Here is the input.
Amino acid sequence: MKKILGLVLTLFVIIILLGVLIRKDDNNSGYTFDTADIKPNPDAVAINKPYPCPKTKTIDGVDYLQSQLPVGQFGGEYVTSTIGEGPKTFNPFTSTDATSSTMADVMYDGLFTSNPMTGEVIPKLAKGVKSNKNGTKYIITLRKGIKWSDGKPITADDVMFTWNDIIFAGLGNTSIRDELVIAGELPKIRKLDNYTVEFTIKRPFAPFLRALSAPIAPKHYFAKDRDWQKNFDRFLATNTNPKDIVTSGAFRLKEYIPAQRVVFEKNPNYYMINKNGDRLPYINKIIYLIVGDINNQILKFEAGEIDDISLRGGDVARYKAKEAHSDYVIYNLGADNGTMFVAINLNNRKNKDTGKYFVPQYKQRWFGDRNFRKAIDYALDRQGMVQNIANGMATPLFTAESPSGIFYNKKITGHKRDIKTALAYLHKSGFRLKNGKLYDKYGNRVEIDLSTNAGNTEREALGVMIKQDLADIGIKVNFKPIEFNSLVNKITNSYNWDMIILGLTGSPLEPHNGKNVWSSAGPLHLFNQRSAADIKAGHIYPLPWEKRIDTLFEKGALCTNFNERKKYYDEYQQIIYNEAPIVYLYSPIRIYAIRRKIKNIYPSTLSGLTYNIEELYIDKEFKK
Amino acid sequence: MKIWKFIFKRILQTIPLLIIVSFISFFIIRLSPVDPLAELRLNPSISQETLQREKTRLGLDKPIIVQYGLWASSFVRGDLGVTSSGEKVSTKLAERIPNTLVLTLIVIFMTWIVGVPLGILGAVYNKTNLDRILTVLSSVGMAIPSFFFAILLLIFAVKTGWFPVGGLTSFDFNDLSFGGKILDLTKHLVLPVTVLFTISLAGLQRQMRANMLDVLDSDYIKFARAKGLSEGKIIFKHALRNAINPMITLLGFEFAGLLSGAALTEYVFQYPGLGRLILEAVMKSDINLVMASLMIGSIMLVAGNLLADILLILTDPRVRGE
Here is the structure.
């Protein structure tokens, strides 16, 4: 009797253990290396099939935007997800985090948008634009007869209000305003009639028209209280009653349930129609599930709860193998506009409140030393990172522009991992290696804190690899991932960090958008951030090469000739490579899985999969 | 009358306890090198006035002991401050507490409905196969870590599609009929409840069995048997009443323990409860939120113990006599 019981028990334990092992493997392929052999062909799915842009169509005096795609079926829901805590605000002008901005984009359209295939500026809320010869005057005509979600007309007053009273007045997040200070002056805006406005800028400015893609706010809603300016930062907070929110985009807010989801419903007054003249969007509801981490997102996708997912390198092989028998398609959108990098904190200023340095002085001497930074650059094994962490789904990167960008400097070919060169650089600055430990010339042990946002397994794995790579040149790295918001806080506010692994998304079309990062007074000049007060007071004191980059960006913006611009931007990339304030690692390749039942998808390297959310529809007859 | 006096006394005793708990937590958090206003400073949706107001309210320019006094006095007045994202802490907590309570209460209810009888069964049929099977099952339940079990169940949900993967409600929850809402909630609750239930059931069953065995072994039960009383009468009238007393103390602990003990499970299941909120708050050092949660946790613990003591007085004449 006892023997049988014992046997049963043992079997039970074995079964559980086996089950555990199998499951774990299945679930935890984040950065296992064995899948590298069965790498799918990244070009398996043809993308960039030409997307016919919507055109203006006037019916009964209303200037609709007409979709040129096949007519779809109305109804259904599109369920997607967002990682993190959910939106902090629904106000498109105050949002600073990605989730809030995404939510705002769903609800508010701008005057212009980009052609998802070529990147050129195309009208959205605007009907058209005319400019004078030297590019200092833009006359923008609006669509007649289109309405906000509450039925009030969208007119030149709303555009004037948005640009004059919100953006140029410096309310909320001022990054658009700061970008448009051209030759020390903001553009002037004038209302010509109810449907025409005129922008005047002092000097030609290459990225101007694209900047007009900023959302337009409904004046009658935003300015309904007398002291709306005072309360602007709290306006459209997450506890706003969804019924009150007036939008121009394809959707309006239906409900927000903290830690669970954000639900948008169709805007009945949206100005886009299909070929039959029916109002878009096709989809009734778009739902963002708020999930805690990437693993949970994957589980939700596999359980069929969400319709799309951005795949990690390690998961691609598994998904690809199952694709043929599944209800999803995998799209490879090619090299990302994104860049993965390690930023080094060059900050040598004091905290005015406490009188202490943001970065301890002995560390300032390391980070301020070009040789030290180059040593890190040479000690990192980018090829290994691409292979092991991105599973080959990335390209090593040595400068700020992603290889997909049209301004990418092809002359910077980079280098392999080279410990000797790294040590030579260190030696030049008096660092000494003793028993495998690195000391600076004052005898301080070189020990660096490295951080990234917790929950991002790719960056966490990168952190571990960087720690190992730098251990080879004797640097001790303390790697500690922290919550994303705390990380952002460290970068933009408390400046008390050494090295941070981050990714930023640039624009493949407009390097000038990187000005916030590269201008020495930029709000995201993370490797040497000046505080807002310092910038206001003009206490910038740029390093010589920072100054050169400032000049290059200024020249690049004023110039409209592509080849001439390219020269400026090539030089800036070269400077970044030489100085290595930010050590670039790789540019990922984006791979998405999306349900087959979702139609009218025109994947684009520049804009992704769901940029035309109003034209997407759900095929109700679709069966696996 | 006596019982009211007792309750009053206990509540008085609670006050120094809460003070000590808040004192220790406050100092530990404040002494860690984290600027509690760091996130507020960064946050563009927080105006300078708010920042200043918060700074004065928290008294960050004053010594820690004064800071503590200020925090405590605003806490006593019911003002919990704002979180790093500018929302009121009280609103945040109010959003989550009901969700956690739903989970907690269901689990406590089920554990007790099932655990106590199973414990009695184990004791009565001591050393039979039934007892052995129960022992094996409860050992498994005690041994398996909650987060791991939760992950296994999540994978189960993914593979079978029988249950939703985490969360509390489906996206179309508000459009459902009343019955549909109940069904939807049930579907979402099954897995987290299973995890918490399995784990606390095991402990409870073992405890009940041990108590019951002790009592069944005592002289008066032997006497009752010798007297020829029916087995049912012996167990349910004489043995059970004496065996249940220690369980009531346990109930108090469980009441408090489930609130904090559910945190890992909540996180894995993406359950929008208090545990996940606190975990996220701790990760980004959201001091007001963390302090408020800690205080609620302590109050729950104290209240649970008080509840258990009161129940003991009601059920046990020996305690009442003292």
Notes: Chain B touches chain A through 45 residues (CB under 8 Å). Chain B is about 80% helix and 0% strand. Confidence is low (pLDDT under 50) at residues 42-46 of chain B.
